[in-house]
């Protein structure tokens, strides 16, 4: 059974500029107090200055993502996805960490992972890791703070309408009044959070 939270990580090293880059995406899924499924995303990218390799960049993306999950108290369960077979296999314990420049990063990742009640390690092809891959290759600025994407209020509203229709509230004057009030509140929230 998969965990509600997912971490996608990636890293890249550009030998022309001698700069390493990393990125991660955390997808947090939960149900609110009305039972509606909600999802929000946290993503970040950054620069690695100094001595770097592709594998150092990959491990840095993983470590930064794990650290953010811990800071956000997302330790109940986590499914980790990366397109680096080496990193995933080393985290699973299938491969030894032989490179001296990876041993400390690996140790830190193992220490962060130990704080999760449940964690799974999954290799995925690059095509299934597009957001983290894009973050590790795209434009970013050193010291960027994690960005939290707000919930899709319109999708939540549609899901709520669907639930109400299934429960037979459609057409009931009292239920319509509550639905109207909820719709107004959803629109207020959307305007406030999206600045519209």
- Please count the beta strands (DSSP E, at least 2 residues each): 6
Question: Beta-strand percentage?
Answer: 15-25%
CATH topology of the largest domain: Nucleotidyltransferase, domain 5
Provide the CATH superfamily of the largest domain: Ribonuclease H-like superfamily/Ribonuclease H
Highest CATH level, the class of the largest domain: Alpha Beta
Principal-axis shape: elongated
CATH A-level architecture of the largest domain: 2-Layer Sandwich
Put simply, the count of helices is 6
Report helical residue fraction: 40-55%
Question: What does this protein structure show overall?
Answer:
- The chain has about 200 residues and is an alpha/beta fold.
- The protein has six helices and six strands; from the N terminus they run βββαβααβαβαα.
- The chain folds into two domains: about 5-150, Ribonuclease H-like superfamily/Ribonuclease H (Nucleotidyltransferase, domain 5); about 155-195.
- The chain has helices spanning about 55-70, 85-90, 100-115, 130-135, 155-165, 175-195, and strands at about 5-15, 20-30, 35-50, 80, 120-125, 145-150.
- A hairpin with a 5-residue loop joins strand 2 (about 20-30) and strand 3 (about 35-50).
- Helix 1 (about 55-70) runs parallel beside helix 3 (about 100-115).
- The chain is elongated, with a radius of gyration of 20 Å.
- The two termini are about 40 Å apart.
- Residues about 140-150 have low confidence and may be disordered.
